Amino acid sequence: MDIYDPKTIEPRWRQFWLDKKVYQPDLAVAKKPYYNLMMFPYPSAEGLHVGNMYAFTGADVHGRFKRMQGFDVFQPIGLDGFGIHSENYAIKVGRHPKEHAKISEKHFYEQLHMIGDGFAWDQKLETYDPEYYRWTQWLFVQMYKHNLAYRKKAMVNWCPSCKTVLSDEQVEGGVCERCKTATTRKETEQWFFKITAYADQLLNNIPKLNWPKKITIAQQNWIGKKEGVIIHHKVNGLKVTLDAFSAYPAWLFADTFLVIAPDHPIIEDLQLEDKYYKDYKGFLNETKKITVEARQADKFEKKGVFTGRYVRDPFTGGDMPIWLANFALLDVGTGIIRCSSHDPRDYEFAKKYDISLREIVERNKEEPDKPIHAHINKGTLKNSGEFTGRNVEDILEEIVEWIVEKKIGKRVTTYHLRDWLISRQRYWGPPIPMVNCPKCGWNPMPEDQLPVLLPDIKDFKPTGDGLSPLQKAPKSWLETVCPKCGGVAKRETDVSDTFLDSSWYFLAYPNLKTKEFRHSSLRGAQRRGNLAEGNIDIAKARSLDFARDDSKSPFNLELTKKWLPVNAYIGGAEHAVLHLLYARFVWMCFKDWGYLSGIDSPEPFPSLFSHGLIIKDGAKMSKSRGNVVNPDEYINRYGADALRMYLMFLGSYDQGGDFRDTGMVGMYRFLERIWRAFQKQIKTSGKAGSRSAGQNSDKEIERILNKTIKKVTEDIAKFKYNTAIASLMEFMNAYEERVSDGKENILSTDDAGKLIKLFAPFAPYITEEIWHYLYPDSSGSIHSSSWPEYNSKILEGEMVEIPVQINGKTRAIISADQSTAKSQSGIEKMAMEDLSVMRYIEGKKINKIIFVSGKIINLIVN
Ligand SMILES: [Zn+2]
Ligand SMILES: [Zn+2]
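Predict the joint structure of the above. Result:
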C-alpha cells in the first residue's frame, strides 16, 4: 500500500464483491427489504455516457447508504433494448438490430461493472429477451381481455423520419420524442390502450405521491380534467348537430360564432357550396403544415375561413356563422368551439374577419379597450336572458342545471388525456400477439402460445408506407391457426410501443427467477420457435393442445408483496408524461385484475427523486459540439471512484452541474490525500505510544468527526451529496492541519473506521481497500458494515445557528451553544444585542416574540 493506484485496486474489489455476493440480497429471506431502483436505461450504442453514469451513481449512493443502515437493498439493473431508439441506431451503423443489441448489451454491462454500482446481477433483464417479452405480450392480451385494448381508425401522429405512428405523449412540442423530426397527422387503423378509463384514478392519486412538483404538475396538466357543458347546435337546413364544449357556462349568452378544427371529419357533412368547399380544402392543407404546438401558441397568427353555414344558437335563438379556424384543435374538447368577445383569442379572430360580437359583462374602467376575460368568472350579467342582472359567481351551478333542463346541452367532464396508441410500424419490438381470422375477426393469441417470437428477417427497415416490416416475414410466420375456429388466420404485423416494455419491468425484477415467471416457457418457446421458423405444418399445430389457463401470471405473490412498491425510484424528469404515466396505469390495471393482491399501495413508485443534468464547460453536451464526456476515458485515467466522487460533488444532485476536467483532477488529488492520510494512520498504529483499537482519538478531531458523521448522514438521506462531500473535505482539512502541527496518529482505529465508512457510498473501491488494511482480519466488505452513528454527547458543546427574524424576514443569524439555544430568554438577549437586529427594531415596538426552541426566533414589531 504505497501509491494510490485505482487500476490495481478497482478490478480486485469488483471481483471480491461478485464472489461474496455483497450486493445480491436473497430475495426470499430478506428481513428488511428496500427496493432501490434507477429508471430503466436504454443505452445508446456508444454505451453509457456521463449523464447515465451521473444518474446511476446518485442512485447507487442512496442504495449503499441504505444497505449500511441495515436494509436488504435490492438494486437491479437491466436494459430497455427494444424500440425505435436502438433500431434507428442499428440502421445508422448498418447492422441488424438483433446483432447490434448483442454488441451494445455487452459493452453496457462491462461499463456498469466498471463504475462500481452495487447491482444485483442475478436479476438482470433485457426487454428483447423472449422470456421477458413473452409477458409483455401477455400484458397486451390481458388488456384485450379486460376491454382495455381496442383497434380503431383515427387521426394519429406520424413521424416521417421514424416512419411510424407515435402516441400523443411521444410528440413533444410537435416533434418526435426520439428523433426530433416534426410530426404530421395521418389517418390509419391502430391498436390503443384505454388509459383514459383510469384518468380519474391517475389524477386523484397525485396528491399521495412524494414526487417533485414539476413532474406531478406535468401529469396533472397532461390528464387535463375539465368540467363543463356540451352544447348542441342544429345546423340550419341540414340534419347535422354540432356539439361544442365550454368550461365557462355562465358566459354562453355572449357567444356569436362557432369555429371548427379544419381537420374535423364533420366538415364533410356540412355539404359546403363549391366556393366554400374549395376554401376549406386549401385552408386544411395550409394548416396541416403547422405543428399542433405552434397552433396553440399565444402569438400564433389566427386564421380561418367561413363555411357559408350557420347554426341556431340555443341561447339567443339567433344564427351563428360557422367558421374553420387554425387555433381549433381536433383533440381539444370536441374540436368545435363556441366563440365570444370574452376570450382574447376569439376576439382577435372576430375583429380580423369582421364577425359581430356581443358583450355580457361591462368592461373595466381601467381597461376600456378590452372586453372582460371570461376566465375570471366574475361580473354582473347583461344581455343574458333570464340571467340578466345576476352575478356570474352566483349562477355557475344554476346555469348548468338550466342548460340540462332546457335540453340545450349536457353536463360533461373532459380530459386532455387520450388513449395510448400502442402499435408501431417498426421491426424491433415484441409482435403484437393478435391474429385476424377471416371468419372470427381479431383474437388474442392463447396465453400458453406466447411469446410470438420476433422472426429474423433481413429486410427489417421501416417501409414508410405505413406498413410494418414484419409484412415481409415468411408466410410460415404470417399465417397461424385461429385460436377460435382453427382455420388459417393472419398475425398482426405491428409491434408494440417500447414504452409498453418499460411499463412493468420493475415488477419483473424480483420475479425473474421464480417458477411463475419462467413456467413452461421453454417448452412453449420450442414449440413456438418451430412455428415461427415455419418447419411445422399447420395441421400438426392444430392438433396441439391450446388449452387456456387464465390464472397464470408472471408474479410470485409473496415475493412481489415483499418487494413492491419500489421504495426509491430515481431518474430524470424527461419522462414525466411518458414512462411515469404509463407505469402508473399498468400498475393500476394489474391491481384491478387481481395480480397484485395483498399489495396496498395504489401506486408503483410512491417516492420519486429526479436528478439534474450534467453539462460540460458550461454547455449542453452534444456530439456536434464534440464535448460529450466519455466516462471510460476518465475511469481509465483517474479510476471510477474519482469520477463518482466528482460527479456527486459538482452540484446538488437534483440540479446537476458543470463537468470540468480541472475539477476532475482536483477530485483525484483529494482521493490521493485520503489515501496518504490512512497510510500514515495505518503505518503508525500499533507502534509504541500510538493509538490502536480501544484507545481514544484526539479530543478535537473526535468532535469534528462526530459533527461530520451527523452532517453526512443527514445530507445523504436528503440526496444532498455535494454538501456531504464538502463536509468530508472540511474534515480532511482539519485532520491534515493537526497532523502538520506535528500530531501523528490522531485517530483511533475505531474512529478511522467510522471515517472511511462515510466515504464508502461515494467511493466504493478505495474505501474497501483501506477498510481491509484497517481490519486485516475482516473477511467481509465495508459495504455490508453498519453506518456509523455520531455521539450526541460529544456534540453538545457544539454551537447552533439561530436565525433572527423580524416580521418573518431573517435579518441576522446568531450563534449559541446548545443549552442557550434552547432558552428563550438567552436567545432574546443575544438577539437584542445583535447590531443588525438593533438597526431593524430601533424606535419600534415589539408586539410579540415567537421562539422555537433551538431553531428560530421571530420578533413581531411595528
Ligand atoms: Zn422520429
Ligand atoms: Zn377463426
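The first strand starts at residue 33 and ends at 38.
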